[in-house]
Design goal:
about 350 residues; Rossmann fold; 5-stranded parallel beta sheet; 5-stranded antiparallel beta sheet; binds S-adenosylmethionine
């Protein structure tokens, strides 16, 4: 039976192999499922337990448990959380460090493996999730891992309107899918970030979604072969073109962006759109319009394209076939199914020379 010390040693060790990291996370999942009674499940049946909230979908406890298996995501976030707590301990030396973990799921995966590295009293931990069943599971795990002496409280509620009684030093929230679609990461961030202590740390520190032209099948084939894709090199070689930053979610700016949101013609709330013109390139037909997501969890702890399920590319079918000179606007829609929406704008430039190359 895996203990927290062994688990966190493996997860935090930069020299651990992928197989060692997977084994450690599998052992963690196994013990959590045995104790908490929730089996990871990504299948359709798991969706039945989703909570359809006004700001997005809160995936079911079984599906949230399945997130552990997104190895690189779990490892990068756990390392980020550890580094952030250490940074917070240095900043707030009088202690204890107050942590709010929103959307903890049934295993509190991003924090629980680390708790054995801290003395009781060093941290005050608040766990929040919409699913009571997940909190019940975490309660059982706290006992099973012998963490009863730590100050840990559990609250059932919606992180999109939850008000914390004070200003946490660290806030953790990973309620997202690729391209910030479906789950309420934006609204959770907009609600919680203003509640952070002024010198506190919000994890993730940044989520950037870029609209690009890419040779998606080629890129996917390379990833499948095990090649590491370097987006800068792809861009320099003209194999990928960056059209625009669709959204850069920075916690300190999220509430302001939300306040500036307006209703579109269908009555849906959307952030200020960005306007894009499809560039002129001879080989436009070789490319797919794609949204790429990058997540900076904390400092150097980042997830780049293809590295995890939450940073997989998303093809924008609304833009195909690609038309040189077409004007369109791209806006992030809030509401019960957050997503990017693309709307053509009249006045596309018919005079563009579609044979001219696009400069990287
Ligand atoms: C993607 S899972 C992540 C689970 C876990 N934190 C992890 O990283 O493995 C998202 C979790 O956030 C919860 N959640 C999503 N939206 C929420 C909201 N608005 N309020 C509270 N919990 C929410 C879901 O119930 C789910 O447990």
């Amino acid at each position: 039976m895996i203990g927290l010390k062994q688990l966190s040693d493996t997860l935090l060790n930069e020299a651990s192999s992928l197989a060692q990291l997977r084994d450690a996370l599998n052992a963690f999942t196994q013990r959590c499922s045995d104790v908490g009674g929730i089996l990871p499940d990504r299948s359709f049946n798991a969706w039945a337990g989703d909570a359809l909230l006004k700001n997005g979908v809160a995936i079911s406890p079984a599906a949230a448990a399945h997130c552990v298996n997104d190895t690189q995501r779990s490892v990068v976030f756990i390392r980020a959380v550890y580094a952030a707590i250490k940074a917070a301990q240095a900043r707030f030396a009088q202690g204890p460090v107050e942590i709010l973990y929103a959307g903890c799921g049934p295993f509190a995966t991003l924090l629980l493996p680390l708790l054995g590295r801290f003395e009781a009293g060093e941290l005050t931990v608040h766990l929040l999730d919409i699913h009571q069943r997940s909190l019940d599971s975490v309660g059982l795990l706290i006992n099973d891992f012998g963490l009863q002496a730590h100050h840990i409280s559990c609250t059932q509620g919606d992180a999109c309107d939850y008000q914390h009684p004070n200003h946490p030093h660290v806030i953790i929230a990973e309620t997202m899918q690729k391209s910030l679609e479906q789950e309420p990461q934006f609204a959770v961030t907009a609600n919680l970030a203003p509640q952070l202590h002024p010198q506190g740390i919000f994890i993730p520190q940044q989520v950037e979604v870029d609209l690009c032209l890419a040779r998606l099948n080629e890129e996917r084939a390379a990833v499948k072969r095990g090649d590491t894709l370097d987006s800068d090199a792809l861009i320099a070689d003209g194999k990928r073109h960056r059209l625009a930053t669709a959204l850069c979610l920075i916690p300190e700016q999220a509430a302001t962006l939300q306040q500036q949101a307006s209703r579109n013609s269908a009555g849906l709330l959307e952030l200020n759109p960005i306007h894009v013109t499809m560039p002129v390139t001879a080989d436009l037909t070789d490319f797919d319009p794609v949204l790429f997501t990058r997540v900076q969890a904390f400092e150097q702890h980042q997830l780049i394209d293809y590295e995890s399920e939450i940073t997989l590319p998303l093809r924008c079918t609304e833009l195909t076939p690609l038309r040189a000179g077409e004007h369109f606007k791209l806006s992030f829609q809030l509401g019960n199914y957050p997503k990017f929406a693309i709307t053509p704008v009249d006045g596309g430039d018919d005079s563009v020379d579609s044979r001219a190359p696009l400069t990287p």
